[in-house]
């Protein structure tokens, strides 16, 4: 879920905020068609895919080798329903199956008949943040969201479409244990492939089509792992077919900083700054050359690569000018908005007080657990039920996971273009309300990346992203429908901006993410398609044109 931004962005903010927030410092992260049919109502808590409703499904992956990983889907603490066939536990990342270095995983097979011989991998970011975050609050079989009373069945769980594998990695993330040896993303990819080969062999899944997905710092993890799988030339274990990454860290922090001021201007009702402060940040934007760089390079097609060094860097010293120091602009804005909105959430800027409790201890920008509450995955009864090591303290984000720090360059400047070219099936999604990684920063990175023999998109993203209208279940899992953003596809890369989503798209816009996965898997041919969800095929959709997309691209 999380991504650690440059330390300088938060350092001074945390000092100011911690006092206001009772000592809790911020985590340091490096139109709708009205002529539509009424929604039908399903039975509360019942997923809308018929193969789940019709009753139990055979345990497809139950064998002598997988028995020790079986999870009793009726005995997960606080979950009062059967989640179906599931497997979890630690597995070695080396040929020595009893070796000390192990990743923790959760595997949820799909009852969907279209899921034959395919698997989706999900990775959260950080670095050092647990993929169990994604499992329990984004796309797993049950959800326990911020401030909610208990877990509920997730009708938008990705297992309704295909077999899904959540992995805590690298070593020292969540329940994954061993010696931290990773120096860079090449090491991360080697560790993951060692684990994944063992997983494929254990669960008898040779030749399965592999799709890798994730969010945030998984913008580093996923492209490097996908590239390594492609280069392995081993389709029995690493049959890489596509990638989906949300709000990804794919570029230098300074590229993201180029787009901060127009983000604040566009969302002025959420950043209600006075005139003098607004002038202050615009002065920084202009003096550091950020505004000029945007006007030239956030264009379609781009005129060329971004300058080297980037704006704000002294070419003689290679270091930032004092007024353009790394993270200074973001730090200045965040300090000011936190004064106005003490519960400001860098992951979803429309969030206001009160601060909600979270069973993972990390609601929004804060480490926070009210008195008497416990962190779900750190409970002994939960650990026992999900085959986790009982002596391992679990935290939503931890580490370190690198010996020093990640020495790899951003994925958009190295391996991402090759993954696009080789798979012709890469989706980059971005929530419009994310502040920690900005949508226009991602678009700037795309416009500075060569793929399919050309630099960036040749045309701007303007097409509508459509989420089908659908059957609704209980109120705790309702999700939006209709034109929900903007999309564009060129040369094997699809960009999709999601209008009302923050950083964690499957959490804030679960129906949108469900559609993205259908597209990645080839179940629908376009993110502008008005075809119903494949899991709800008879639900009627509106007639008439959709118009343009609604997540504004390239504002500058």
TrEMBL record:
<dbReference type="Pfam" id="PF00450">
    <property type="entry name" value="Peptidase_S10"/>
</dbReference>
<dbReference type="InterPro" id="IPR018202">
    <property type="entry name" value="Ser_caboxypep_ser_AS"/>
</dbReference>
<comment type="similarity">
    <text>Belongs to the peptidase S10 family.</text>
</comment>
<dbReference type="GO" id="GO:0006508">
    <property type="term" value="P:proteolysis"/>
</dbReference>
<feature type="region of interest" description="Disordered">
    <location>
        <begin position="531"/>
        <end position="556"/>
    </location>
</feature>
<keyword id="KW-0378">Hydrolase</keyword>
<feature type="signal peptide">
    <location>
        <begin position="1"/>
        <end position="19"/>
    </location>
</feature>
<keyword id="KW-0121">Carboxypeptidase</keyword>
<feature type="region of interest" description="Disordered">
    <location>
        <begin position="23"/>
        <end position="44"/>
    </location>
</feature>
<keyword id="KW-0645">Protease</keyword>
<protein>
    <recommendedName>
        <fullName>Carboxypeptidase</fullName>
        <ecNumber>3.4.16.-</ecNumber>
    </recommendedName>
</protein>
<dbReference type="InterPro" id="IPR001563">
    <property type="entry name" value="Peptidase_S10"/>
</dbReference>
<keyword id="KW-0325">Glycoprotein</keyword>
<dbReference type="InterPro" id="IPR029058">
    <property type="entry name" value="AB_hydrolase_fold"/>
</dbReference>
<keyword id="KW-0732">Signal</keyword>
<dbReference type="InterPro" id="IPR033124">
    <property type="entry name" value="Ser_caboxypep_his_AS"/>
</dbReference>
<dbReference type="GO" id="GO:0004185">
    <property type="term" value="F:serine-type carboxypeptidase activity"/>
</dbReference>
């Amino acid at each position: 879920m999380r991504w650690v931004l440059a330390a300088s962005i938060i350092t001074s903010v945390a000092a100011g905020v911690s006092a206001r927030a009772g000592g809790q410092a911020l985590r340091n992260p490096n139109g709708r068609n009205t002529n539509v049919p009424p929604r039908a109502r399903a039975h509360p808590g019942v997923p809308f895919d018929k193969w789940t409703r019709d009753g139990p499904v055979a345990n497809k992956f139950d064998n002598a080798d997988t028995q020790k990983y079986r999870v009793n889907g009726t005995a997960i603490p606080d979950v009062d329903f059967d989640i179906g066939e599931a497997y979890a536990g630690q597995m070695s990342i080396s040929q020595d199956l009893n070796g000390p270095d192990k990743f923790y995983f959760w595997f949820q097979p799909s009852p969907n008949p279209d899921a034959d011989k395919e698997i989706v991998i999900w990775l959260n970011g950080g670095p050092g943040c647990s993929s169990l975050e994604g499992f329990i609050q984004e796309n797993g079989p049950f959800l326990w969201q911020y401030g909610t009373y208990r877990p509920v069945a997730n009708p938008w769980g990705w297992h309704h479409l295909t077999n899904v594998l959540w992995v805590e990695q690298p070593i020292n993330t969540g329940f994954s244990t061993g010696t931290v040896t990773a120096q860079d993303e090449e090491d991360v990819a080697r560790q993951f492939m060692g684990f994944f080969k063992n997983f494929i062999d254990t669960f008898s899944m040779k030749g399965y089509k592999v799709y890798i997905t994730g969010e945030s710092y998984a913008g580093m993890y996923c492209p490097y792992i996908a590239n390594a799988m492609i280069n392995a030339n081993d389709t029995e274990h690493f049959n890489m077919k596509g990638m989906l990454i949300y709000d990804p860290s794919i570029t230098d922090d300074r590229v993201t900083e180029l787009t901060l001021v127009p983000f604040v201007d566009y969302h002025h009702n959420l950043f209600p700054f006075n005139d003098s402060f607004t002038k202050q940040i615009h002065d920084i934007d202009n003096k550091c050359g950020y505004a000029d760089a945007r006007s030239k390079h956030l264009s379609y097609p781009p005129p060329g690569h971004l300058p080297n060094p980037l704006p704000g860097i002294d070419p003689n010293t290679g270091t930032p000018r004092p007024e353009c120091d790394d993270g200074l602009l973001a730090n200045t804005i965040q300090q000011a908005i936190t004064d106005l909105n003490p519960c400001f959430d860098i992951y979803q800027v429309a969030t206001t007080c009160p601060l909600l409790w979270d069973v993972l201890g990390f609601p929004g920008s804060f480490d926070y657990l009210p008195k008497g509450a416990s962190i779900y995955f750190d409970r002994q009864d939960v650990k026992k039920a999900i085959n986790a090591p009982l002596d391992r303290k679990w935290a939503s984000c931890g580490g370190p996971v690198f010996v020093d720090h990640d020495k790899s360059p951003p994925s958009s400047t190295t391996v991402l273009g090759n993954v696009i070219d080789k798979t012709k099936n890469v989706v980059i999604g971005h929530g419009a309300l994310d502040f920690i990684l900005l949508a226009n920063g991602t678009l700037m990175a795309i416009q500075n990346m060569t793929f399919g023999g050309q630099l960036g998109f040749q045309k701007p993203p303007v097409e509508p992203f459509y989420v089908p209208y659908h059957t609704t279940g209980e109120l705790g899992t309702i999700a939006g429908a209709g034109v929900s953003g903007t999309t564009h596809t060129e040369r094997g890369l699809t960009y999709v901006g999601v209008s009302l989503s923050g950083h964690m798209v499957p959490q804030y816009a679960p129906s949108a993410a469900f559609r993205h996965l259908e597209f990645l898997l080839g179940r629908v041919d376009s993110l502008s398609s008005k075809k119903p969800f494949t899991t709800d095929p008879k639900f009627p959709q509106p007639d008439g044109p959709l118009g343009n997309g609604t997540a504004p691209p390239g504002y500058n």
